[in-house]
Amino acid sequence: MSAHPAVFTVLIPARMASSRLPNKPLADIAGLPMVVRVAQRAAQSGALRSVVACDDARIQQVCAAHGIEAILTRADHSNGSDRLAEACALLGLSGDDVVVNVQGDEPLIDPLLIAAVAELLHRHPEASMGTAAHRIDSLADYHNPNVVKVVLDGRGMAQYFSRAPIPHARDTPATAWWDGQAAQNQPGVAALADFAPLRHIGLYSYRAGFLRQFPQLAPAPTEALEALEQLRALWHGQRIAVHVAANAPGPGVDTPQDLERVRAMLAS
């Protein structure tokens, strides 16, 4: 981290419609609506301000009741990036301002992780975006297409994101990272000791000017193949800096089962 704290704004997109969990932002978690819990965590990150960008007046009213800033955005946005771009314009953010996108269904988000992802753009002026990753510790996750992998260059910039198991070790067993001592005699395994595959964490920082530009960029073929929106930035030559976290983040909430799990975690 630099000697001076990063100056940044947290934007929390929240929409009422969810096919798997209707009215998700208002779901009660240990006595508070989920969007309120997320905003409270974000406020602990050191952000200049934390703003919920919502599509429904009911979300805005709930936020106001808990002292949380919220703005109403259009309801017809097809993705979160478009909603964030509109929010940047509504808030009058300048092109160089740093924005961190915290998803509205992450009530256990670590405030320190938010700050670290914001800090990336202060340390890497060549980057338009920042994000996070952590070391994959199981072979099942390495091969799971729902676990997005990222490979970095020597400066901590993303080279590629994929649902496939990357990087692929041509001359060593696919299990070399998890075989430990049993694989020490295999060629190339020693070189993998400090080079494990990384799981991408879906937390992003942006320069506000690039965030406003992003929805206008043509979608990338790789983005369509992998169903990963961040590949559009790489396709168009933008740099994405990556913070490698020591641990996996807390679980998000996509389904009723996820909601019950998070409720139980907070209750305990």
Can you describe this structure?
The chain is α/β, with parallel strands linked by helices and 268 residues long. It has one domain: Spore Coat Polysaccharide Biosynthesis Protein SpsA, Chain A. It is 31% helix and 21% strand. Strands 1, 4, 5, 6, 7, 8, 9, 10 and 11 form a 9-stranded mixed sheet that branches. The chain has a two-stranded antiparallel sheet with strand order 2-3. Strand 8 and strand 9 form a beta hairpin. The longest helix is centred in the middle third of the chain and has 13 residues. The radius of gyration is 19 Å and the shape is globular. The mean pLDDT is 89.
Q: Nutshell version of this structure?
A:
The chain is α/β, with parallel strands linked by helices and 268 residues long. 31% of the residues lie in helices and 21% in strands.
Under the CATH scheme, the architecture is: Alpha-Beta Complex
Uncertain stretches of 5 or more adjacent residues: none
CATH hierarchy class name: Alpha Beta
What is the domain tally?
1
Q: Give the N-terminus to C-terminus distance in angstroms.
A: 33 Å
Order of helices and strands: EEEHEHEHEHEHEEHEHHHEH
Largest sheet: 9 strands, mixed
> What characteristic shape results from the CA principal axes?
globular
The name of the CATH topology is: Spore Coat Polysaccharide Biosynthesis Protein SpsA, Chain A
